[in-house]
Write a structure and sequence with these properties.
With about 325 residues, this protein is α/β, with parallel strands linked by helices. It contains 11 helices and 8 strands. The protein is globular and about 50 Å long.
Amino acid sequence: MAEFSFFPSTERKTAMYERIYRSLYRIRRVEERIAEVYPTDTIKSPVHLSIGQEAVSVGVCEALRPQDVVFGTYRSHALFLAKGGDLKAMIAELYGKVTGVARGKGGSMHMIDLKAGVMGTSAVVGTTVPNAVGYAYAVKYRRENRLVVSFLGDGGVDEGVFAESLNFAALKKLPIIFICENNGYAIHTHQRLRHPALNICDRAAVYGIPTERIENNETLRIHERVKSAVDAIENGGQGPYFFECMTYRWKEHVGPNEDYQLGYRSREEAEPWMRNDQVGVLGALVEESARKSIEQAVDAEIAEAFALAESDPFPAASELMADVYK
């Protein structure tokens, strides 16, 4: 792997590697624990796991500033945690508990933490893309020192709002970065069966947007390239920017299991991605004692979050019609 050029001193690189490893490891262990608990039916929400795709959310969010905001997809856990969302509230939401991010009524696909800059995720494909563009328009109108990141999947580019949103963002030169997490599949349908041309960057480039495709699911490369876009916007440049990040999910589309037996993809296809597991790659860059300390602290934090979710109360029946648009 190339030397990480943004942090020239050994101390700064060490701190960066430790921070990124902690985020990757934390997301992985949270989702592995979700997969373990899910068959007990104590988790009341369907779950779309990000195992294998953590590098994209972590690489992007480590490049952002605290005031920057993100909008995401239904595969939302990695983004929520990478941006600093409340772990305890997230797990409580999966359990349907009143202490959850949506008071137990939104579930896994509807994550929000305004204090952390997580503006919302949605179960409906593509719907947060125009939300993000609208927010970026307000940011520019109010001359705020922040930017917006819109996460979408390769399936999301097939929605009409993708074209409309990119066109408007380019026309108004909005402070927004689009991150396409291309894991190759829209549920069970490979991209080659949906798109006559496989390079999604080409579709974004027709709007005059700077685009870049990042191969191999490399956390540090994603961070470096997105950080360059963040810096450009922060220093008076104009958006938008578009990144297509190639990645791969290890688990089934929805649920805690593997699905290679279904025939739409093979374990052989997945194996190169697994060998390049970014949790292991970044862990190898962290000194052993520091790595073990990170892992112990994260494991304890996760155990506490799940224990609290088990004991927290469900919403009262009186909340059934609360926060409902009429």
